[in-house]
Amino acid sequence: MSRDTLSDLLRSVRVRGAVFYYVSCRDQWSAEAPPAREIAEAVLPGCEHVMEYHMIAKGSGWAALEGRPPIRLDTGDIVIFPQGDPHVLSSAPGIEPLRRTADWVFATRNEAKPMPIAYHHGVVDAGAPLPAEEATMVAVCGFLGCDLKPFNPLVAALPRVLHLPAERSGEWVARVIEQAVVESCSPRPGGDAVLGRLAEMMFVDAARRYLDALPEDATGWLAGLRDRFVGKALSLMHERPERPWTVDELAREVGLSRSALHDRFLKFLGAAPMHYLASWRIQLGARLLRETSRNVATIALDVGYDSEAAFSRAFKRTVGMPPAAWRRTQAG
Question: What is the pTM of this model?
Answer without folding.
Answer: 0.90
